[in-house]
Structure formats: C-alpha cells, structure tokens
Amino acid sequence: MDKEIDVDAAMLKEVPAIATDDGANIANFILVNCEKNEGLQKLYSFQTLDSLVARLKAVGDERWLARLSRLLLKNLEYPLHSVSSQCEGIMRRLLSLCSKEQISSVFEIIQTLSSKHEVKSKFLALNLAMEYVDVKQFLSQHPDAIAEMIAHTSETAVVGKHVLTYFEAFLKKLWTAVAGKPELWYTYWIDDYLRAVRSGDETLRTAVCTHLTPIVIKIHKISLAYILSKFLEEHNKVK
What is the pLDDT of residue 148? Predict the structure, then answer.
C-alpha cells in the first residue's frame, strides 16, 4: 500500500529532487489536488504548483509533462479568474523551461483541443506559446492550421479576440520567416482566405473581410491589391 503524503507549500520548498520516487509521489499529490479541488482550494493548489513547476518539469518523464500541460489547458477558462490567471502564468513558465522537443510535444497537446468549448483555451494557449513556435515547421506538420484560424474568426467576440490575436502574431512571424518576400508569404494563406470569402457562410465572410483583411494589410500594405488581383483572375476565368 502506498504511503500517504501529507504536504503543504512550506514543506514543498524543502523538497530537494522531484525526480526521486518520493518526489514523484509529491508531484502526483500536487497535480491531483489541482485536478480535484474547487474554488479557493483550487487556487491554493495551483499556487503550490506554480512554486514547483521547474522541479515538476524536471521529473524527466514525458507523461508528467503531458499531464501537467493538459491540466493547465483544462483550467485556462476556469470560472474563478484568479485560477485561470494563475494557470496562464504557469503555462508561460513551463514553456520557458522546455526544450525544443518538449515545446513540440506541448504544441501537439494543444492541437488536440478540438471541441467547440475548447476553442478559447486552445487559442489562449497558442498565443502564450507563440514566441516558441517555428511557423514554417508548424505549417508543414499542420497544413490546415491557417484554415482553422480563419474558420474560427466568426466565433463569439470573446473567442474571436484570441483567434485574431493569434492570426496576426502568426502571420507576422511568418512574414519574418520568409524574409519579407510577399509572393512567398501569400502562398501560405491566400487560398484559405479566398475560400472563406467565397463560402456560403455570410458570418464567416463578414468576419474575414472585417477583421482579417485589415490584419494582412497592416503586415504588408500591398496585400489588398494582391487580394483584388486574385479576385479579378478568378472573374476572368469564369468569363
């Protein structure tokens, strides 16, 4: 029978090596408390987690990293703002401690969020992780990523805000990644953009024209002329 561990934040500061068996038991204890507690008790549990995230991450087992990442993602929208805010801070710290390989693992976990009620958490997390992503590599692994961003621009205002923030940051980083070469930059997003504008979804069309078009123009002023030229090309083909 496993021994029961009685632990509090003050005691945890004295834990020397989380990678030991006792350390792993303590790590499990903290994560279970974060998972099961509610209200202020949940906040206190996450505060304890925050003080030990570096040592928790040092467990070395990818399963720990995955479990920790999923726990944080699940609570980015917790009703008590102090808890969701605490989770954002922990996620930032965790990402800053991860290797490139571990960052990729966390990104894959974020990408698994797909249900409607997970959209806000997904784009919140993607925004937090933006500085660590290699956008060209990410698109090679997830070729539908930009189409997904565009599709979610017509979500509620609260969700849409996070989507638009991510879309702008992503395209800015992509602009830098292609060394400011417009023709190359366009190839990554123009087809998905045009499909959305041509779609039968009026809400989506409106969101794209109202919100996304100003973003691409902000990044590169000639974008509007390019978009219009593509529409003209299509119109001439139909004739």
Answer: 92
